């Protein structure tokens, strides 16, 4: 609407800045993957050593002239910087290159715009784009003066730029109101799951770590999964049945990336809350990635930003099929709790270990014992069988059922309370452990 988005297939020159600050340094390989994911046709990658950024161009004037000649020689349509540009820097560079200039944030926003499928996802992307482009509106209107007056309409009037900024603010308010409704609907759904005592498990991790492939393997779904950055934007929830635990809700969420634009974190807050409200986070890690430690740090930084860094986390080292000499396994901490699982979502090796680890972490308070149910509690007996938690059944002298069960204690208490019993009293009188 008010913002521009380049079409896929444009001839693009990539500009990567090599600074001394390790915190601000970007990965050139990841930069190229981002550009390819956006659909760009890469014609050149230019490395620019820059220790003190220029306020006018970000890079030195010598490099600007060199890039200008390269743009003309390659007939490039687009120059993409692996860095955040200010609006004035973007305008100055476009004036020199005589083609479009995009920074890292704009590139990621463009990928998100291509990937969004649901109405909610499109709203979130549009909000982030409008917020990002609001400071860049002047680029399209620097040639305009005041609106035409005419007889009876002369006066200071309102510039086209002011008009668009006002309309843009109105649109942003509309989107935020719609997303607030989505947020309240998600919260209502989460309250319903909490009332049903269904644990929530959320997949988080760096983009292209294999979250959607793992999600499909666990839930037998067909969520879109591809070897590209940000293949998944819209969250997907599925019910997963675990032995010894029962049903859990598994959520597949958007992947994180180094220096994820803050505007995206804000825009996708309704989606990311699926992670911040989970009972357990599965941090999916690409075990084959040489820079996996840096990626882990970036994921933890985003989790901290959305308030999810204190939640229980199980590390899942994926893509084991690309490693040699490493077997599927569960690694435990000093208390014997599962800490990380090594597996391959692609060939399915280690998935059973992951299910076991999830059940252990969510079923810390697991009840294993025998319940003595009188004949009057036949409905309760049927509910235990319906949940699939009965290991075996016998009968006492009075004809009551002796059920050997294995289930979370919270689920046991919920079922017993429905029959009008106090859980502790019921267990004391009718449970043999």
TrEMBL record:
Where along this sequence does the record place binding of Mg(2+)? 212, 232
Q: Which residues form a coiled coil?
A: 165-192
UniProt organism field: Pseudomonas cavernae
The protein depicted here goes by the name GTPase HflX
User: What terms describe the molecular function in GO for this protein?
Assistant: GTP binding; GTPase activity; guanosine tetraphosphate binding; metal ion binding; ribosome binding
InterPro entries tied to this protein: EFG_III/V, G_HFLX_dom, GTP-bd, GTP-bd_M, GTPase_HflX, GTPase_HflX_N, GTPase_HflX_N_sf, P-loop_NTPase
Query: Partners and quaternary state?
Result: Monomer. Associates with the 50S ribosomal subunit.
Q: Cofactor(s) for this protein?
A: Mg(2+)
Instruction: Pinpoint the Hflx-type G domain residues.
Output: 199-366
Record-listed GTP binding positions: 205-212, 230-234, 252-255, 318-321, 344-346
GO annotation, cellular component aspect: cytoplasm
Q: What does this protein do?
A: GTPase that associates with the 50S ribosomal subunit and may have a role during protein synthesis or ribosome biogenesis.
- Give the gene symbol: hflX
Per the record, the major location class is cytoplasm
Q: Subcellular localization, per the record?
A: Cytoplasm
């Amino acid at each position: 609407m008010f913002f521009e988005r380049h079409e896929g297939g444009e001839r693009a020159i990539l500009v990567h800045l090599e600074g001394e600050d390790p915190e601000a340094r970007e990965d050139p390989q990841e930069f190229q993957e981002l550009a390819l994911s956006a659909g760009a046709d890469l014609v050149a990658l230019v490395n620019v050593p820059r220790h003190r950024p220029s306020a006018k161009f970000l890079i030195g004037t010598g490099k600007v002239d060199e890039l200008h000649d390269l743009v003309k020689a390659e007939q490039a349509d687009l120059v993409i910087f692996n860095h955040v540009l200010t609006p004035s820097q973007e305008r100055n560079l476009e004036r020199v290159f005589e083609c479009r200039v995009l920074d890292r944030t704009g590139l990621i926003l463009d990928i998100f715009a291509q990937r969004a499928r649901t109405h909610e996802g499109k709203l979130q992307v549009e909000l982030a784009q409008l917020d990002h482009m609001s400071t860049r509106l002047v680029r399209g209107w620097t040639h305009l003066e005041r609106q035409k007056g005419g007889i009876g309409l002369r006066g200071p009037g309102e510039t086209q730029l002011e008009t668009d900024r006002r309309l843009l603010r109105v649109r942003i308010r509309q989107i935020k109101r719609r997303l607030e409704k989505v947020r309240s609907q998600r919260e209502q759904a989460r309250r319903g799951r909490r009332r049903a005592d269904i644990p929530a498990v959320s997949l988080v991790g760096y983009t292209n770590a294999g979250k959607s492939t793992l999600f499909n393997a666990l839930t037998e779904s067909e969520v879109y999964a591809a070897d590209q950055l940000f293949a998944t934007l819209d969250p997907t929830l599925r019910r997963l049945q675990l032995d010894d635990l029962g049903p859990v809700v598994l959520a597949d969420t958007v992947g994180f990336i180094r220096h994820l634009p803050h505007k995206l974190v804000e825009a996708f807050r309704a989606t990311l809350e699926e992670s911040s409200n989970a009972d357990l986070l599965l941090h999916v890690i690409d075990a084959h990635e040489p820079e996996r430690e840096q990626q882990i740090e970036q994921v933890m930084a985003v989790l901290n930003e959305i308030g999810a860094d204190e939640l229980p986390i199980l590390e899942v080292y994926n893509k084991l099929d690309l490693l040699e000499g490493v077997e599927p396994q569960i690694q435990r901490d000093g208390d014997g709790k599962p800490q990380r699982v090594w597996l391959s979502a692609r060939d399915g090796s280690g998935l059973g270990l992951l299910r076991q680890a999830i059940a252990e972490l969510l079923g810390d308070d697991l009840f294993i014992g025998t319940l003595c149910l009188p004949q009057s509690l036949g409905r309760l007996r049927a509910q235990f069988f319906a949940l699939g938690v009965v290991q075996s059944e016998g009968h006492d002298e009075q004809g009551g059922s002796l059920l050997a069960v294995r289930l979370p204690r919270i689920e046991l208490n919920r079922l017993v309370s429905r029959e009008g019993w106090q859980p502790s009293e019921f267990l004391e009188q009718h449970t043999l452990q």
